[in-house]
């Protein structure tokens, strides 16, 4: 992906002709996803490619975007002319979306490396217990090169690659069945280091954790129902705050009339020990990008600091509307879409309590280990999320595993009711695919220490 995508100087000159008071961005992209899937009937190899270019024009009438599913510097003026006429055309770019399915030496080498990683995970999980079936292990290597050229002369070239393994395990005993997934991933600074980017010990640990959880969950009981304390385990359950708070803090949502987090900057929304951050460069060794899809440097943003709402997540357009500076959170699914304010890696700064202390301080409640999906009304902040793995807390101890459960409430209520914060910050890099206004899937990471929410609605699935 080292070949220039389009003529950067020509793209900058074109963007500069957008007109006084207008912002223009040329965005060119080349993206390759290599995938190996191991299932019971063998290995499947695949690759998806896309490349193209788009131009977003921000005027007093709104955002106008035009794109083409190929790279051609000489066609850039066509994009600007169409965007200037208000021709909004974005979405999946049709027949050229997948691009040619061409295997090269590099593709073969990448597939071989992914197949080895997948094999390590499958062997570890499959040998863990009698009755455990490795339903599927997926290894994905994503490479993305971008170019951003703007009306103010900014020209950015970006490149990012990461690898992700997802281990799906099924355990059966009698009539009981339990299914569990675990994820491991890392940033790949140089494609030549893919083979060592995720160590075998990390892969085996993820596979073993999936097998352990699946066997344990064979003895699952129904979750309790009602308002009760919920302890969120370190790591992946950070998806709750992503879902129920993070979207509401994206500036295009927060600045709308009647928004749940509108007009409360500077107010105390959570206990003084809570600091919520979004950083595209976190965690170390598994960042998402160095420049966003508008060419802004990736910056760490304290959304809440000491419980006080300090900032929203901005792209260039919302920052201009709010009279502040953008901070590198303009993201887009592909060249076919305009940028939007989006989360990257959202996490809670650790506190001072050991996780065992938080559990011991909870006479009865729910311990959440995995959250896989949810729905949030971005204006009101009301949510429901699905818990796929967890345990009961009884007399300050973890006891029986639970079947799937649903958590519900409001984002503001969750923030208000966080009362205990652990010291065991963990991340789940590249663990979730986020949807917003049809731009799906955009990869995000989450992280948190063990947290307790004093009261949250709990029900069956």
Automatic annotation (TrEMBL):
Q: Which GO terms describe its cellular component?
A: cytosol
Q: Provide a GO biological process annotation.
A: proteolysis
Q: Which residues form the Metalloprotease TldD/E C-terminal domain?
A: 226-460
Question: Which GO terms of the molecular function aspect are on file?
Answer: metallopeptidase activity
Q: Which InterPro entries match?
A: Metalloprtase-TldD/E_C (IPR045569), Peptidase_U62_metallo (IPR051463), TldD/PmbA_sf (IPR036059)
SUPFAM superfamilies reported for this sequence:
Putative modulator of DNA gyrase, PmbA/TldD (SSF111283)
Report the family membership.
Belongs to the peptidase U62 family.
Query: Which named protein is this?
Result: TldD protein
Q: Whose protein is this, by species?
A: Sphaerisporangium rubeum
